Amino acid sequence: MTPSSAGSICCPRVNRTCANCTAESPRSCVARARRPRATTTRSLRVLDAGRDAQGRHRHLASARDSAGEPRSAKGAEPVGDIRNRLLRFAETVCVPHLLEHPRLKPYADEVSLVLVGSVATGLCSPGSDVDIAIVCGADAYAAIAEGTKWREGRPSEEILDGTQLHYYGVTYDDIRGAFGELDDMAIGMYASGRVLHDPGGRYARFVETLPAGLGLRRRRVARKLDHLARRSRGLASALEYGDPLVIGRVYLEVIGICLALTALLDDVPFDPRKRLFRSALRGPVGKRLEPRIRRMFGVLGSLGEFDAPSNSACVEYLGPLKELTDTLSKEAARLELVDG
To answer: What CATH architecture does domain 214-334 belong to?
Structure first.
């Protein structure tokens, strides 16, 4: 997870070398490809429940634990244990390693190390990387970032004891600017980040000055509703032109906005890049709307047959979206997250 350019923050995942071989992508790793795939209770339930929509949603609900998180496969390491193990690894292995790193050692008293990403949020798996942000002032950043590609969105990478470590530098001004722009990724990362090293408590004091609470949530909801309205109009235009690829891309973007908005209504943290569907529907509003959002994905199956714009096609795509948009707007008003 890294800042992509000056004044903005993003967290792209770069190609990594598998710990078991030299493959560029974990998916091409022979060692992983030959590993037997566990059949989870959830996957069996989903397959079995495909015969009727109501059954499908009942089975999916029962495959989650009381916190709304998917259960681990039978015999697999519990998610909580995975997170605790990776947290200990970050604290006892990664932090000492970084503080002794030739690049960082001269500035150890000027930088704060903040655990971000899936381990910090608890949405990790056994193969998750450890992502650490090196937060510092502009002068320290200029010194430690020399020779890196952090500004291009590429973190530095190392493998420590078989676990991948990603780390990158980011300035206080970068973080403040991203919060001002209501950047979902940055807000999710630094609002839920776990401080590992903070000499003098500078980072802790800085976080207290960032926008937070109900005021920030209301601004984000208003921004999402406006974005949803604009992209819904974009979808109508795409349907008019009739290009299936454009329609599909805009439709998925609109669903993504609906998911992020749902998470904000429930006030639950969400991962906008890799786990949006899984993380956004954990609250009461999300659980209530999940069947409707899942049905919207089913509409995409008709894109292969899309030939020319028609009233029926517009109704098929825009009808469920308008209903969902109306529901989200009413829910935002009920929660007093929008004016009027």
So the answer is: Up-down Bundle (1.20)
